[in-house]
Amino acid sequence: MMKKLALALPFTLLLGACEMVPQEPEAIKQMSLCDKVQALVKEHNNQFKTLRISSPARSRSIAVWDARYHLVGNNCQIWEWGNGNVNYVCSHSTPNKDMAMDLFEKAKNETRQCLEQAWQLEERPRKIGTGLKATFSRPGDNTVASVHAVETRGVFKSEWSTYFTVGNRNDDI
Q1: Residue 171 in domain
Q2: Is residue 110 part of a domain?
Q3: Torsion angles phi and psi, residue 141, rounded to 5
Q4: How far apart are CA 86 and CA 108, in angstroms?
Q5: Which of 29, 98, 101, 120 is deepest in the core (most CB within 10 A)?
Q6: What percent of the chain has a predicted confidence (pLDDT) above 70?
Q7: What is the pLDDT of residues 72-99, one digit of tens each?
Q8: Residue burial 33-67, b: 16+ Cβ < 10 Å; e: rest
Q9: Structure pTM?
């Protein structure tokens, strides 16, 4: 009986992590990057509700929640925008374009390895701002994974940021 329980416990924790159960942070820490990406793709159908914490910050066109878990990177949020569109968004700022492009390429290649062959990659310049956008999509599925490298111009200096998102497609950026 103890052997069965000992074998069932890790399996139960893994299933809990894949279902994004908030009570299992240690199990989530043990997930591979690909397990996390695939779990995010699956959780999009639930609008990332189990990953939202706190009350959202709201403006006229967007609501932003802090993410319960930072599954890809350390700065992740859930954005709800438009008519029910929702995205899990992680960002990383860098001091220059070279570092941002290195992160962009790494994130794009790792995402490609984590998704099934049915996912197609489209890469193009961003429509808003200076930078690139890589979008992974499947025919007939409204969930996409995307990676962006974006210049952020400030008053005194420019920075670059790399974003990783899973959720609804946004062709406007």
Answers
A1: yes
A2: yes
A3: -120, 130
A4: 21
A5: 101
A6: 85
A7: 777 899 999 988 899 999 999 999 999 9
A8: eebbbbbbbebbeebbeebbeeebeeeeeeebbbb
A9: 0.80
